[in-house]
Amino acid sequence: MVADVDGTLTDRSMRLSVRAVEAVRRLEEEGVMVMLASHNALCVVKALATYMGCSGPIICEGGGVVEHGGRLVILGSRERASRAMEALRRRYGDAIVESWSNRYRLVDQAFTTSLAREVLEEALSEVEGVKLVYTGFAYHVVDSAVDKGRGLRAAMELAGLEAEDVVAVGDSDVDVELLRAAGLGVAVGDATPRLKEAADLVVSSGDGEGFAELASMLLEGRLSRGRCPPSRTPP
Q: I want to staple 4 with a disulfide (CB 3.0 to 4.6 A). Which of 47, 170, 191, 205 is the partner?
């Protein structure tokens, strides 16, 4: 199983759900490999995976960086993200508040701002090969070829998995490609409308409670695999 982190394993205050952590442990104990997929930096996601007990590949920086068993795959250009940040700082100065984690990032750059997205995108139109991503927690500028689906495909290759072996779960628009790359795509109950539309299944609970609900369905044999489950909501 591959899970987004913020809003899927956490609540909206970015606090880890105890039930989600317990669910990860149950899955791993039953032989289900758990992978994390996040827009955070590798050092943050790897530490989280270690303490939660996840044994699967780590997908970070929105799919731009994948790590497993000491092998590191880079799927985007950091130079493009750096040029984009320079363009934003040059135009808007202190209105662009860079993330402390940018020094550790290998592909993207993260920031917060009070500026409207339309204003940011207009400034970035001058920079070739980059896109602006909003996760609900921060903005990211990244190589336009990067997304979580591409990261998941690289992770599956590292782990020797096929798409039909993988269940993906998320909560926001940035998880659409992640769900599409998996054999079964699941949205938590408080996911965005676009993600719910892309999902094969929508669980009733939100945030970490939704992940725990999904884990129970899988372990109890109540989860249909493949792209065409019998219903979009659990029994």
A: 170
What is the Cα–Cα distance from 139 to 141, expressed in whole angstroms? 7
Closest CA to 17 of 199, 188, 223: 188
pTM, full prediction: 0.91
> What letter would DSSP give residue 16?
B
pLDDT at 98 over 90: yes
Q: Are the CB atoms for 106 and 61 separated by under 8 Å?
A: yes
Report how far residue 111's alpha carbon sits from residue 90's, in angstroms, rounded to the nearest whole number: 14
- Dist CA 15 CA 34 (whole Å): 19
143, 166, 198 — which closes off a domain? 143
SS3 (DSSP) at 14: coil
* 66, amino acid identity: V
Measured torsion, CA atoms of residues 131, 41, 174, 189, in degrees rounded to the nearest 10 = -160
For 173, the domain range is: 2-74+146-220
4 labelled catalytic: yes
Count the residues in the chain: 235
Looking at the structure, tell me whether residues 125 and 207 fall in a common domain. Answer: no
Are 188 and 157 part of one and the same domain? yes
Closest CA to 148 of 36, 63, 35: 63
d(CA 206, CA 68): 29
